[in-house]
Design goal:
Layout (H helix, E strand, L loop, with lengths): L11 H10 L3 E5 L4 E3 L7 E7 L2 E6 L5 E7 L4 E3 L9 E5 L3 E7 H5 L6 H29 L4 H16 L3 E3 L4 H8 L3 H13 L3 E4 L2 E4 L2
Antiparallel strand pairs: 1-8, 2-7, 3-6, 3-8, 4-5, 4-7, 9-11, 10-11
């Protein structure tokens, strides 16, 4: 039930006790529902218990950019530190999300101190992972061409999946949002990469040749 990294090393019974102390709620969201409409203006802490969600930005003409893709066990909320007020969290599939006040996480005055301390350690580790993710994202987005963005991203996926036969973890439409590029232009570049012998692709499945 709570088999994800933020609760590593904590007995399930202790997790339940902590969530009770925190007055945590488990909320259910349908695919495409808005989980949070202003990431910079929340005092809550969120944990994805089931499903997936995206942090997205919409610009003045409604164009969407996926800032972060999140899965079971990922966290978001008050600790994010963003000053942007146009970031939304949208359910990418039917999801269950645990939510409680962030101040309850950082207040160590509860009864189950050992489990509470372990939870904080796990949260800090997840935040370190997020920092690494955003550093990678910055490197991808600062590439000047669509081809270079794609190759950089494919390279990161290859390292994470430990194979040259990679699977893009979301749809190609979402990939264009993630890379902040036009989908049609991206698809042309993927076709060019195939023709140039750098990749062999079929949908979300990419075999790197370089």
């Amino acid at each position: 039930m709570f088999d994800f990294p933020v609760f590593d090393g904590i007995e399930e019974s202790d997790v339940k006790k902590l969530l009770t102390e925190f007055n945590a709620l488990t909320l259910t969201f349908r695919k495409d529902a808005t989980v949070l409409s202003n990431v910079s203006n929340t005092d809550s802490f969120f944990i994805i218990q089931e499903g997936k969600a995206n942090i997205v930005r919409y610009n003045f003409n409604g164009t969407k950019t996926i800032m972060e893709k999140m899965e079971k066990g990922d966290i978001f909320g008050a600790f994010s530190g963003t000053i942007e007020d146009d970031l939304y969290v949208i359910a990418a599939e039917d999801s269950k999300i645990i939510v409680f006040e962030y101040k309850r996480l950082i207040n160590r005055s509860g009864k189950n101190v050992e489990a509470h301390n372990k939870l904080i350690d796990n949260v800090l580790n997840k935040l370190a992972d997020k920092l690494s993710y955003f550093n990678e994202r910055i490197e991808i987005l600062t590439e000047k061409t669509i081809r270079d963005k794609l190759l950089k991203y494919f390279g990161y996926l290859s390292k994470k999946q430990i194979t040259k036969s990679i699977i893009i973890p979301f749809t190609l439409s979402d990939l264009s949002d993630y890379l902040a590029v036009d989908r049609s232009a991206m698809m042309r570049e993927i076709k060019n990469l195939n023709e140039d012998g750098l990749i062999a692709s079929k949908g979300r499945y990419i075999n790197l040749k370089y």
